[in-house]
Specification:
Pathway: Amino-acid biosynthesis; L-tryptophan biosynthesis; L-tryptophan from chorismate: step 3/5
Family: Belongs to the TrpF family.
Strand content: 15-25%
Radius of gyration: 16 Å
CATH class: Alpha Beta
CATH topology: TIM Barrel
Number of domains: 1
Bound molecules: the ligand O=C(O)c1ccccc1N[C@@H]1O[C@H](COP(=O)(O)O)[C@@H](O)[C@H]1O
Largest sheet: 8 strands, parallel, barrel
Order of helices and strands: EHEHEHEHEHEEHEEEH
Number of strands: 10
InterPro entries: Aldolase_TIM (IPR013785), PRAI_dom (IPR001240), RibuloseP-bd_barrel (IPR011060), TrpF_fam (IPR044643)
EC number: 5.3.1.24
Oligomer: single chain
Catalytic activity: N-(5-phospho-beta-D-ribosyl)anthranilate = 1-(2-carboxyphenylamino)-1-deoxy-D-ribulose 5-phosphate
Length: about 210
């Protein structure tokens, strides 16, 4: 099964170009002020304008209000929502209102955390399994934390899904082998510092994925 990749937290033309040239299926833009990757809708619009039709432009949000999503969709032109810390009813409401593909992030540390995935059946189009970040952390994602991939063993996924959390060029092959993921998502694993994407790391990650 071919594996595709999302490069998340892009904020510059050169790193977005590296993601597209390297074969990313999805590119992500973070709309969350506390994040070092936060982009405003006007800046995101300039970047999304570079994204070819075969690559999806994903907006990453943390329990957003309608106005924030409206700006990202209508001004920036994102075509997929990635929602962290957002209740199933709210995910369903945003998906219905904006009518675009919608992902629900499920933060995983223990097997019990996977139960949350079932509550998104019918509300989201895809589950993004991400590592739970430490209590009190500034961000619910994008911190390079990974979870125990064996927790997914035998789990009956209620929806199509993707894997994220602490992935990088060196571990993505093992992550895919261990979990069977067909879509992987990386942010800090292709950075030289928080919020600073690295074109060589992006290329290396996408090369690792292309070899799977
Ligand atoms: O990247 C961020 O700043 C961010 C902020 C708020 C919610 C999610 C965020 N990132 C997402 O986190 C995962 C994993 O990131 P990492 O590879 O472990 O650094 C990824 O899906 C990002 O989209």
């Amino acid at each position: 099964m071919p594996v595709s990749a999302k490069i998340c937290g892009l904020s510059t033309e050169d790193t977005l170009g590296a993601a597209i040239a390297g074969g990313a299926s999805h590119v992500g833009f973070v709309f969350f002020a506390p994040s070092p990757r936060d982009v405003d809708p006007a800046r995101a619009a300039a970047l999304v304008a570079m994204v070819p039709d075969h690559v999806r432009a994903v907006g990453v949000f943390v329990d957003p209000d309608d106005a924030a999503v409206e700006r990202a969709v209508s001004v920036a032109g994102i075509d997929t929502l990635q929602l962290h810390k957002t209740a199933p009813s709210r995910v369903a409401a945003l998906r219905a209102r904006f009518g675009i593909e919608t992902w629900a992030a499920v933060a995983v540390k223990t097997r019990a955390d996977l139960d949350a995935a079932r509550s998104y059946a019918g509300a989201a189009d895809r589950i993004l399994y991400d590592a739970k970040t430490p209590d009190g952390a500034a961000l619910p994602g994008g911190m390079g934390v990974r979870f125990d991939w064996s927790l997914l063993d035998g789990f009956r996924h209620p929806l199509p899904w993707a894997l994220s959390g602490g992935l990088d060029a060196g571990n993505v092959a093992e992550a895919v082998r261990r979990t069977g993921a067909t879509l992987v998502d990386v942010s800090s694993g292709v950075e030289s510092a928080p919020g600073v994407k690295d074109v060589d790391k992006i290329a290396a990650f996408l090369q690792s994925v292309a070899q799977l």
